[in-house]
From TrEMBL:
The modification N6-(pyridoxal phosphate)lysine is found at residue 208. It comes from Neorhodopirellula lusitana. Residues 14-362 form the Aminotransferase class V domain. This is Phosphoserine aminotransferase. Pathway: Amino-acid biosynthesis; L-serine biosynthesis; L-serine from 3-phospho-D-glycerate: step 2/3; Cofactor biosynthesis; pyridoxine 5'-phosphate biosynthesis; pyridoxine 5'-phosphate from D-erythrose 4-phosphate: step 3/5. GO terms for molecular function: transaminase activity. The gene is serC. Homodimer. NCBIfam families: PRK05355.1 (NF003764), serC_1 (TIGR01364). Belongs to the class-V pyridoxal-phosphate-dependent aminotransferase family. SerC subfamily. It holds the Pfam family Aminotran_5. Its EC number is 2.6.1.52. It is found in: Cytoplasm. Keywords: Amino-acid biosynthesis, Aminotransferase, Cytoplasm, Pyridoxal phosphate, Pyridoxine biosynthesis, Serine biosynthesis, Transferase.
């Protein structure tokens, strides 16, 4: 080897507020690094072994079992690992539960991801937007009085946390018992305990709060597996994934391996999802408090009763000030804070793996920046 490029070290790591792919627990990254060249017992890297190798099958089963234990998922539900991101689920859900029926699928539209989900579902059947907060740029969520859902709907769909707008449901929306409740939980999966038995199906891509890009987790009530027309594309057919233990084709082995480690970190290091929720409340509240006490210098995007624990969105007095904030934050090692263009301003994504110290550093910077630039 000739002179090598300077290598980045762990001390070069910034506090990373990226919306996704996003921060991972440092201890998980270190474990992955240690095992990377040679997975214990395999004589090769995890990247190099078959998905049918018993070592990988065990990793997959352990990941599933840890998720089952964290969320209290019963045997009435299947847990599947799929590729295609959350975006493939927009199509898969409608292909399995709506295509070929004369039912309607009801959607609560509360942000950008819901809008994309509706667009795909419309290709499969009759879709009704039962609630839509576009008029207020998706800054709020419905109460039961704001929408209706017929008893014979194919399903009621919502997004538990709209990542771009930073609005999060505090609990499941009202849904008739006869209608499967479906949730896109991509950006708040594992941020708190969930009453899984209220759901027909819930899913999450991993790269926001649960692992690296490449895998999505689908938790589906088993009686819904048989509804789909078997002639839908094989990969979209949930039953194929369920019947083959997520090995109908080659699963994203590396992503499942890392997701399993993140789940174990939640279980062992954090102490479970109730504890995680407590930490997430503490972290997010410390930032919302600074916003609320800034005399209007920072303006939160979400209405206060639906503020997200995961994505804290706010605006500054001008675009110039926003650019200045992002740039100065960068020199304080606070990275990836620029908001999505549809909301503008700042988005601080403070997922499970964002340490308290990172939120504290951002909070201190916000307080200081406001005092130097307001009035
Ligand atoms: C990121 C995200 C998606 C899209 O995920 P992909 O894996 O890129 O398809 C969908 N829904 C929500 C809530 C998200 O945060």
């Amino acid at each position: 080897m000739t002179a090598s490029a300077p290598s980045a070290s762990a001390t070069d790591r910034v506090f990373n507020f990226s919306a996704g792919p996003a921060v991972l627990p440092e201890s998980v990254l270190r474990e992955v690094q240690e095992e990377f060249l040679c997975l214990p017992g395999a004589g090769a890297s995890l990247l190099e072994i078959s998905h049918r190798d018993k070592l990988f099958v065990e990793i997959l089963h352990n990941a599933e079992n840890t998720l089952r234990s964290l969320l209290g998922i019963s045997d009435d539900y299947s847990v599947m690992f799929m590729q295609g991101g959350a975006t493939l689920q927009f199509s898969a859900i409608a292909a399995n539960l709506l295509r070929g029926t004369d039912k309607t699928a009801q959607y609560l539209l509360t942000g950008s991801w819901g809008k994309k989900a509706i667009k795909e579902a419309k290709k499969e059947g009759k879709v009704v937007t039962a609630y839509d907060s576009a008029d207020t740029n998706y800054d709020r969520l419905p109460t039961a009085a704001d929408y209706t859902c017929p008893d014979d709907a194919a399903y009621l769909y919502y997004c538990s946390n709209e990542t771009i707008q930073g609005v999060q449901f505090g609990s499941e929306p009202e849904c008739p018992a006869s209608v499967p409740l479906v949730s896109d939980a991509s950006s708040d999966f594992l941020c708190r305990p969930l009453p899984v038995d209220k759901y027909g199906l819930l899913y999450a891509c991993a790269q926001k709060n649960a692992g690296p890009a490449g895998v999505s987790v689908v938790v589906m009530r088993k009686d819904l597996l048989d509804i789909a027309d078997p002639n839908i594309p094989g990969y979209l057919h949930y039953k194929n994934h369920h019947d083959n233990d997520s090995e109908w084709n080659t699963p994203p082995t590396f992503a499942i391996y890392v997701l399993g480690k993140v789940a174990r970190w939640l279980q062992n290091d954090i102490g479970g999802l109730a504890k995680m929720e407590e930490l997430n409340r503490e972290k997010s509240q410390s930032l919302y408090k600074i916003i609320d006490e800034s005399n209007g210098f920072y303006k939160g995007h979400a209405q206060t009763d639906c503020r997200s624990l995961m994505n804290v969105t706010f605006n500054l007095p001008s675009e110039e000030m926003t650019a200045k904030f992002v740039s100065e934050a960068g020199s304080h090692r606070l990275a990836a804070l620029k908001g999505h263009r549809s909301v503008g301003g700042i988005r601080a994504s403070i997922y499970n793996a964002m340490p308290r110290e990172g939120v504290q550093a951002l909070g201190d910077f916000m307080t200081d920046f406001a005092s130097r630039n307001s009035g």
